[in-house]
Amino acid sequence: MNKEVKGFDRKKVDWFITIVPVLIIVGLAIVFFAFPEQANSVLGQVRFFFSDTFGVYYLIIGLGILIASFYLAFSKFGEIRLGKPKENPQYSFFAWGSMMFTCGLAADILFYSFSEWAMYATSPYIAELGSVQEWAGVFPLFHWSFIPWSFYLVLAVAFGFMLHVRNRSKQKYSEACRPILGKHTDGIPGRIIDLLAVFALLAGTATTFSVATPLMAAIIENLFHITIGRIAITIIIILLTCCVYTYTLLKGFKGISFLAKACIYLFFGLLILVLIIGGQAGYTIETGFESFGRMIQNFIGLSTYSDPLRTTNFAQDWTIYYWAYWMVWCVAVPFFIGNISRGRTVKQVILGGYIFGVGSTIVSFVVLGNYGMGLQTEGITDFLTQYEATGDLYGLIIDIINTMPAAPVIMVIVMLTMIAFYATSFDAIAYTASCYSYKKLEDGEKPHKLIELLWCVLLIILPIALVFSESSMSNIQTVSIISAFPIAFVMVIIIAGFIKDAKKYMNGDKE
């Protein structure tokens, strides 16, 4: 896996797939820079069209892929090993789980863990359902657990099968569709799929960077009282983070694995620290346990709720956005998970992913989210009044952290953890994008460092443009919703193709 392409051979590079999406992204960046107000207005209109008109489309695919994940894990497909029949896993469960978890969530998990309960608490839909205490802690668990992780895990086994069992040399989204598309994979349909995949990959990057990096800027402002402006600080942070993930990616999978483990230690260290010194341990654990039970009890209803009368637009603003957000990340993350899952069975990848990925995610939202919600619902501090007045989520998070003992230390740990999360996630994205830039990569071969370096730089163009144009949270989310629309359909083709090809493999067709 760590054998680099020897020399930089231009003939091996798929320049069409590399250049066209980049030109589109650069064009969008220029528009955001030059016409921020007009661009934001158009994004808002497009978001309404996709989420309002086709919202059920995202919901159906979400529930369908979750069901498919359990079918694949517990059927005869679950025994297929991603590699040779008796091959051992390439990485230990902890190293594998660390890379999978950190590459799949980026720093968004910390931003949303602290703040998402407040966004729900101020929604009219929560008032319709009941109290903040009953429901504000439920939706973060729902939106970040089983359905979105099923996207990653089902596609991961499809890509892992393609790479480690079928030994395909074309490491592209379209190649996973070959069992369904056949010869058309090498024609226009395959090219369109790969263009959509690279564009979605860049859009997901932009969404992630644009959402959470301002929190790091707010922390720096609060700690050091810097007055150059949050936008300037945010852009500096993006550039510094780019340097970190570029360095680790160029070091190869050993560098990525080391960073992922460091990120996990920082992450769980932060959770333990907040639980111990925050003074809300009892409330945090009991509310988290209750919220998880309520989510399981109402899972089907939550998964199919579309607000047909549009009384609150909650489904359009949140559930549909989240499924779209995870779908665009499915261009890179499952590919990376499949790559590092050599030697594991389909069942081990899916169930192991649920245990490590979903388990860690839920713990984060329970500990960090319920700490702030506990102070609010117990009447100790009123975060919601100020948030409703200002709409400043980053200020809200700073206020929450400032209620803890040794708040500056907590802020430093949060910032370091976010940098580690970002670096690990964008290692995976840049690696996947680099693979897309090649016409063929043999088994165990990795992209040339110049191509990896190119993508490391390109990934920050649109995020900087979105931050510079001061796009609203809604407009940043729109980038993912638009990109996910065609990707969702391709995901279905990939899953169907895997099932078809896996059946042939189990019937003795080893080609």
Topology (elements, then pairings):
Layout: E1 3-4, H1 15-34, H2 36-53, H3 55-74, H4 93-105, H5 108-121, H6 124-129, H7 132-135, H8 138-143, H9 146-165, H10 178-181, H11 188-224, H12 230-250, H13 253-277, H14 281-297, H15 299-304, H16 314-329, H17 333-340, H18 346-377, H19 383-390, H20 393-402, H21 407-436, E2 445-446, H22 449-458, H23 461-468, H24 473-506
Parallel strand pairs: 1-2
Membrane topology: Multi-pass membrane protein
Protein name: Betaine/carnitine transporter, BCCT family
Keywords: Cell membrane, Membrane, Transmembrane, Transmembrane helix, Transport
Please state how the strands of the largest beta sheet are arranged side by side: 1-2
How many beta strands in the DSSP annotation?
2
CATH class: Mainly Alpha
Tell me the CATH topology.
Sodium/glucose cotransporter
Structural class by sheet pairing and helices: mainly alpha
Silhouette = globular
Q: What value does the Rg take, in angstroms?
A: 22 Å
CATH architectural name: Up-down Bundle
How large is the count of helical segments?
A: 24
DSSP strand (E) fraction? under 5%
What is the count of structural domains?
1
Task: Tell me the distance between the termini.
Answer: 21 Å
Largest sheet: 2 strands, parallel
Share of helix, binned: over 70%
Overall pLDDT: 86
Low-confidence stretches: none
Order of helices and strands: EHHHHHHHHHHHHHHHHHHHHHEHHH
Family: Belongs to the BCCT transporter (TC 2.A.15) family.
Membrane topology: Multi-pass membrane protein
Subcellular location: Cell membrane
Protein name: Betaine/carnitine transporter, BCCT family
